[in-house]
Amino acid sequence: MCVKDIVSKHKHVAGVCLPRRDIYGSCCSNLLGNGSRWGFVLGLATQPFWFYTSFRHRQWGIFIASIFYAIGWAIGVYRNF
Predict the structure, then answer these.
(1) Number of domains present in the structure of the chain
(2) Less crowded by CB within 10 Å, the N or C end of the chain?
(3) Residue 62 structural domain
(4) Can you give the pTM of this predicted structure?
(5) Is residue 3 a part of any domain in this protein?
(6) H/E element, 23
């Protein structure tokens, strides 16, 4: 199987978006747990990955939850910076 077949079947979505959103998500929770305000920024930065993945795979519940998470992260950024 060549790279063109993999890209055409959208298998790159799971290979690119999922590890980034999981790694960044755990890092931002660790930052917030240690009292750093940068966890809000990192949490807000993960939201495009959640939006893209949930929209692409038609997981509407996760997509709506991502909107509320993005609002929460944005409020945290606004209040701390």
Answers:
(1) 1
(2) N
(3) 11-80
(4) 0.69
(5) no
(6) helix 12-33
